[in-house]
Amino acid sequence: MTVDDAVARALTRRNAPLSVAVGGHGRTGRSTLAAAIRARFRLPTVVADDEGPPPDVDLTIRVIGAQPRRCDVAAVASGGAMIVVAGKADLRGDPRALADIAAQTLGVPVLPVSGLLASVTVVPGDMALLRSDPVDPDVLRRFGVEGVARARELGVVSAEVLTARLREVSGIDAVAAAIRSMSTDIAAGRDRRMRAELRLAAARAVDRELVESALAGVAS
């Protein structure tokens, strides 16, 4: 690898869009939340297992169930840029209270979020179906019991207004705020990874002194 290759690759990764891994144990709604983040924030997002996220991911969102498990405690303790979300909030009787209890166990804030309501987009044809009795099974699958109930509470509104309202009650905007609040930590993590990549290039390159010079100039 030449000095130009090493520096160009490091800078490309440093300036790339924010990348997110959504992790957690099964059946917590992590795939649905990942889909919501892709849909709402247009961020590259992958679903990670408990082996850990890919090494070049900027931010991990840990999705827990109604109560944190030992694997959740261990994941939070491992450090790194992380947001903890209590998933499937639309299925919980008091999602905020449960999230607060989980936060006491984990020692970090926990955000109750419904990935289902966050990712749904209402189209005009849905409006009559949402108020039909009995509710169409496909509508119930897409919107969930809470989404159908919210639609009926609002009465006659447009599909755009209902989409915005479901997003508001989903809790996904709190995730966006948490991501923004971590921008300094995320940038610092990118810098650390860039330095590590350039040091590795310096160790392997024939023109080692040139790469080390680039490391001093670019990653200081």
Describe this structure in words.
Helix 2 (30-41) links the parallel strand 1 and strand 2. The model has no long low-confidence stretch (mean pLDDT 86). This protein starts with a helix and ends with a helix. Helix 1 packs parallel to helix 11 (208-218) and helix 10 (183-204) runs antiparallel to helix 11 (208-218). It is built from 11 helices and 5 strands; from the N terminus they run αβαββαβαβααααααα. It has helices spanning 3-14, 30-41, 70-77, 95-106, 115-119, 126-130, 137-154, 159-170, 172-181, 183-204, 208-218; strands spanning 20-23, 45-47, 59-64, 82-86, 110-112. The longest helix is centred in the last third of the chain and has 22 residues, at 183-204. It is elongated, with a radius of gyration of 21 Å. It has 220 residues and is an alpha/beta fold. It has a 5-stranded parallel beta sheet with strand order 2-1-3-4-5, sandwiched between helices.
Rounded average pLDDT: 86
Cα radius of gyration in angstroms = 21 Å
Our measurement of the CA-to-CA distance between the termini, rounded to an integer number of angstroms, reads: 21 Å
Structural class based on helices, strands and sheet pairing: alpha/beta
Instruction: Give the percentage of residues in beta strands.
Output: 5-15%
Which consecutive residue ranges, at least 5 long each, have pLDDT under 50? Answer: none
How many helices? The count is: 11
* Helix and strand sequence: HEHEEHEHEHHHHHHH
Residue share in helix = 55-70%
Biggest sheet details:
5 strands, parallel
Instruction: Please report the total strand number as a whole number.
Output: 5
